[in-house]
């Protein structure tokens, strides 16, 4: 049995690569692609931006890649360098070469990524599953994370709703443009995805992951987080219970605050960018000094 992720066949990989290139062409700011060695495999990272602020690392959600941030990276990279990796063990241009057998392995991968980028400290922003990765990193290497921002990090804190899981399984079982569009419209209302975004997400379903799946981070791990933490939830999210998730953050993470965005769904960062991105920008700016 395979212990590392891979595409189902060469044709599936080629379709993914073509979709990846098409979405990469939408990146709105100058960038450089880097390959960072880690003990779990080489990690592809897109570097953008400049400025004196502490760098920001962006961790993408399910079936995404570093390119998923193309719609918001222009603003986020205005004052600082921004790094957008393809998380190892997921579809993307990172290559998993060793097993990821526990959630803690993702914390180790994140710390090694910072090492490979030459970052003593970084702001870290994760969206959806990426918020789980970010939480694991902040618990594993608390002194390395300048701030932790969790965008719709429901699954890092509480279980997702059964209805969401069922609908996601159905869409993945028959990954047509129509089935994905129905899921997106229901789960992330108000978010306009490009054809290239949709094509890459569909192509990613042919990647067979061999990694732990997100589950609520244990209390002791959350208590280990020392970074100032901002948790942003859409008040109307369908992924899970944002009030219960908010309670776990404020009860267990010492320096934390929650923003529950009225009218926001699971895609709140992209749905309401003029409300959400200033929160992220100001939070990072406030903590740019040691």
From TrEMBL:
It comes from Isoptericola cucumis. This is Carboxylesterase. It holds the Pfam family Abhydrolase_1. PANTHER family: HYDROLASE, PUTATIVE (AFU_ORTHOLOGUE AFUA_2G14860)-RELATED (PTHR43798:SF33), MONOACYLGLYCEROL LIPASE (PTHR43798). InterPro entries: AB_hydrolase_1, AB_hydrolase_fold, AB_hydrolase_sf. It comes from the Bacteria. Residues 55-153 form the AB hydrolase-1 domain.
């Amino acid at each position: 049995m395979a212990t590392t992720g891979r595409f189902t066949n060469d044709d599936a990989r080629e379709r993914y690569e073509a979709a990846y290139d098409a979405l990469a062409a939408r990146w709105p700011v100058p960038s450089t692609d880097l390959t960072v060695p880690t003990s779990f495999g080489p990690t592809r990272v897109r570097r953008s931006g400049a400025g004196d602020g502490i760098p920001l690392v962006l961790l993408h959600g399910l079936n995404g890649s570093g390119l998923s941030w193309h719609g918001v990276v222009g603003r986020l990279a205005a004052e600082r360098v921004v790094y957008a990796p393809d998380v190892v063990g997921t579809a993307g241009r990172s290559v998993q070469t060793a097993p990821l057998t526990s959630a803690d392995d993702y914390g180790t991968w994140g710390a090694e990524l910072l090492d490979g980028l030459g970052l003593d400290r970084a702001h870290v922003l994760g969206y959806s599953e990426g918020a789980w990765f970010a939480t694991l990193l902040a618990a594993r290497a608390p002194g390395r994370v300048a701030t932790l921002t969790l965008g719709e990090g429901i699954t890092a804190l509480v279980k997702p709703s059964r209805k969401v899981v069922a609908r996601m399984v159905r869409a993945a079982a028959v990954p047509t443009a129509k089935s994905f569009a129905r899921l997106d419209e229901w789960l992330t209302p108000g978010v306009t995805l490009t054809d290239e975004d949709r094509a890459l997400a569909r192509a990613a379903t042919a990647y067979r992951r061999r990694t732990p799946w997100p589950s609520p981070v244990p209390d002791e791990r959350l208590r280990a987080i020392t970074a100032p933490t901002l948790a942003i939830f859409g008040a109307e999210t369908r992924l899970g219970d944002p009030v219960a998730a908010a309670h776990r953050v404020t009860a267990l993470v010492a320096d934390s605050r929650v923003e529950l965005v009225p009218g926001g769904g699971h895609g709140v960062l992209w749905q309401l960018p003029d409300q959400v991105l200033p929160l992220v920008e100001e939070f990072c700016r406030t903590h740019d000094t040691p």
